[in-house]
Each structure stands twice: as structure tokens, then as C-alpha cells.
Hints:
Layout (H helix, E strand, L loop, with lengths): L7 H31 L1 E7 L6 E7 L12 H9 L35 H34 L3 H26 L4 H12 L3 H11 L10 H29 L8 H32 L15 H55 L14 H21 L13 H24 L13 H24 L16 H10 L14 H11 L7 H16 L13 H17 L3 H14 L5 H4 L16 H4 L17 H6 L1
Amino acid sequence: MGTPPKNTFTVERDRMLALKSELMKRLKKLERERTSQFGLIPLRDSDSSSGSTSDQLVFISSSDDDNENIEDSGASFFDSIRHTESDGVEKFPSPMSKARTIHDKVDAKSIIVPRRKNKVGLTIRIVLTLLMGYFDVITDFKVAYVYYYNRQFVVAYYIAGFAVFTLLIQAAVTIQQHKQKGWAECYGRALIALLGGAPIMEGAAVWIGKEDPTLLFPPTVMFAGIKGIEVAFEAVPGSIVQCLGLLSARRNEVHPIQIVGLCSSIFCGAFVMTDGNFGFICGKHRASPNDPYYQWVPNTPALSTRLMCKFGMFLFFVCYFSQFVYTMSIFVDAFGFCLAGQALAAELALLCMYKAYKGELCGVSILSHPTPLTNYVLPFLLKMGYYVLVCACPMLITAAPCELGPEVFAAIIVWRLSTNGVVSYVAISSENYHCDHMHNMSSQQGLIFNAVTLSGALIGLRLFFKNCCKKFNVSLFWKPKSGKEHIESAWRDPEVWGSNMNPVKTKDDDYWEWAILLHPTYLPLEELTSWLCYRLVKKYADRTTPRPSWMSGYEEIVFIKRILTIYNWKGVNEEEAQRVDDALETLFTSKSPKDLEWAWSGVGGGGAAKFRFFEKVKPRKDWLWKRRKVGSSVWESFMT
């Protein structure tokens, strides 16, 4: 029997299937061309609400490169796809026949890893950083054993104690990073951190390149933070103690491992801080391309320029770190630990007084909600940690206005470089100086050493600034600017700045990121009220425009609670409270009282069916936080 003739429907179906197959082949070819040209990876994401499948385009900017891969072509394409807010949806150009839209949420599991050439550079960086860090820790324990064997028990206990204390801090930070994953995994990772495995874990997370929304910090920030903790609490104090031991030892008592240990602490600390600065700032630049403080990374394809920029920073860190370690060891030997600690505490007190005068002493820029912990403990600990970093190996993120600020950052560096020679000269000349053995240095030799390290630090700064991005304004590193002024500039700029490590898409997302991330003391209340009561109400009151993810579902409750917390902290009058109350009622009347019951718990309790902001959110009654007129004194500035 022959093949039965096909009807018209079958013929048309076959023709359409063949046409679809041909179109899909052309589509894949165009996607491959776009991928190779701009670093774009097509993703597939199913919309659970509609059951449809839509295409996405994700800009690949890996967390691995030192932004030696911030290429002109990729950057220009990223600039060309700025959002349009006319219809509330960001539109991206595409070589395909239809426009593609990036959804509000992208599944972290669907993010494709970076290109191979970026992976190679990332692998080299992570391996070198880990090797340098572990070599430093191992040599410190060996040095501690040598001192213990020579019956210098105090020095041995100090060196080993700093290393153990660093492991404890890394374990505590690891618990905070992974606490949303469950207690079993959280404490399992903390145990690994206690055994010295925190850098390996976070380095592996950076290498994989996936963003996990359950983590407190992105992997790049966490990795840089872990290595920064290692430098601040192990390399810096350990180097001071080792240098003190070398200067006070006789020649026949010096073991080669002691010299290797001191040099490894200095060079490893400088290498780690150089890599951490580049990695952290590159990640911030990808997330905040319009933030002027994160644009110094050279974007030229010339490898020599990037290497010279890194070498300049590395040379500055080596010289700056060496000078600080030498000066502190001489000062401690001459006047003791107590006086040295009091001098550093006095400098930290002056720093806190200046931040209090600026009204930003309680400002915290990491996922902060006003609580007794964040009001009194966390700001001081952060500023103390930033102060230690700037004193030993400056982390450029501390120059951001929401951290120490550029003027404080520059003032500490200039103060250190200009006074280290004087301090060492006075300490060596004092009657209390005890290093009277073969390794004693005269005051003239101390001045020569400080002059050499100062010259090396200035040469390193010159190389660094010369090879920075040509468009970067170098004066931002020392030009005074407060965190409030910085955030006001970001809010008033029509361009998207971005504030977290994940790039945002629209200006509303940008506002939301600032409101969630920063302490309320930084947020401009007028701009926040205008955004909430006019912009959001105008766009989303009719409930026909698709809402962003942070205005729906569980995030809606978080949004309400955060807004109420901000206004409660800032303090508003009855008219402003009523305006905010009306805006919240207009935007979120669909939620039942049961859903909103816990949303009021952190700001006064309640759970009534109607939004009554002014009635439910009571002002602080504590006399310490009594509202007073701003600006009449330092104390009043601190209180407000």
C-alpha cells in the first residue's frame, strides 16, 4: 500500500515546523555572535505565574577579574542599554526579532559562569592569594614555636594568640554569612573556618561565580573581608611583635625563620590588600557603574597599564606597612603596650568625635536596621576596624563617604607618613629604649629607614594614580564629602547608581537598594517621601502596572516594615506621617490585618486593619534620643 496523501493541515503543519527549525538555527547563530562580541549569555526562565517561558539576557561581568576585563566594548554596550521608565519596564536592544526583558528576579542557579579567559585569571588570583595567606599563617606558627623554644614565651603567646583570634573572628563572620542556610550547614562552615578553611570556602564561592540570595554578603565582598580580617588581626599585630622580637634579640639568637616570618607578613599583607582592593572595587564598579568613587580601575586593554597600577598599589602597601610596623615596634619597646594602645585609642576617639560632629557616628552601611546593637556597638566596631586598616594597609572602600570618608582616609595616611619618622626618632632617643643588642638601630638609621619607606610609598602612589582610569577624579580620595551628601547625589541623579553587588535595573530599584542597605541617618527624608508618596503612588496605585518584586509577596511586608522603621528613626511631624500613611494605604490595601500583624512589631506593635502610621509608630521616649534642635553643639549633632 502506498503512503496516504497528506491533507492540507498536515502539509501546513510540516511547513511551519520546518520554518520554526530554520528560525531557531538562525536565532542560535545570532546569539552566539552576540555572546562572543559583548559577553552576553541567553538564559531561560519560566514564569511560574503565567506558565510561559521567556528569554533573558544577562551581562556577564565576572567577579573574578581585577577588572582587567572591564572592556570598552562591554562597557559601551552596558551604557547603551540604560533603562526606560515610561512604561515601568526596562527594555534592552537585541539582535533578535523581538525585544528581550530582564525579569525582576533571575534564578541564581541559571547564571552562567564567566568566559574561560576570565576563569583563568580568577583562578591564578585566588590561588596566589590563598598561598600567600596560608604561607603567612604557617610561618607565624613556626616563628611562635621558635620563640617558645628560645624561652621567649610572651612573644610566642602573642603571635599564636593573634592567629587564633583571627580564626575566631573568621568563624563568627562565617556564621553571619550563612545563618539563613540552616544551623547544621552554618555551624559546619564555622567549624571549617576554625580549622583555617574560611579563605578556601569563600575563594571557591568566588570562583563558581553564582549569586546566592540567602547569603548576607556577595562572595567577592566576603572573600575580601575574610582576607582583610586576616591582615588586620593577624598580619599587622603579628608583624609588630615579630619586629619587636628581632630588634631585641642578639645576633646568635636570631633564627632564619624569624626573618622569613616578618617579611612574609609584610609582603603577604601587601599582596592580599592589593588584590582585595582591586577585587572589591571591581565588584562595586560593576554594581554601581555611575558611582564616582568606584571608577578608578583602569579599563584599558593594555596589560602593562593594569599591572603598573597594581604594582604601584603593592609598592605603596609594602612601604607603608613596613614603616608602620617598624615605628610601632620601636614605640612599644620604648614606652610599652599601654601607652601605645592609649595613643591609638586617642586617635580613634578623635575620629569618632569628628564623625559625631558630622552627624554620622551611628551610620552603618551594611544591611542595617536600627537596634541597640547597630546604634551603639556595630558603628564603633566598624570604625575601629576601618581605622586599623587605614593605619596598616589602607582599604580604599574606607574612603567612601558612607564609611570613614575621603578626608578622614587621607588625613590618617598623611598623618602616619609624616609622623612615623618623628615618633621613631623620639622613641629611639628616649631613656626607656631597651633594644641595646646587635640589632639596635640608631636614631639616624631609623630616620634613614623611614625616609626610604616614605619615598617608596610616594613612588607607589605616583604609579597608582598615573595608571588609574583616565576619567577618574583623583581628588575624590581626599576631597571632603559626607555620606548624606553622597546619597543625596545618588538619589537626585536620573541615572541608576546601584548600591549593592547585584546591578539594579530601574531607578525605583536603585532607591529601594539604598533604603534597605543603609542606616537611616544617611537617607534624605525629603527625597524618600517624594519617592514613596508621589512616584510610587503615581505608578502603582492603579494596580495595572506590573510591580517590582520588592512590592509583592513576602518582600511587600519587608518593604512596609523598613519604611516605617526609617521614618520612626528620622522623626516626622503629624502632617508628614499622615502623608506616608495615605501612601502606604493606597499601595498596600490588599493585605489583610493578619499578614501585616508582625510588620508593626519592630516599630511599636499593633496590627490594626487600617494603616495609622502616626498612631502606631511612637517617637522614642528615651531621654538619650530626645529630639532637639540640630547644629548647636557637637553633642546635639551626635544625638540627632
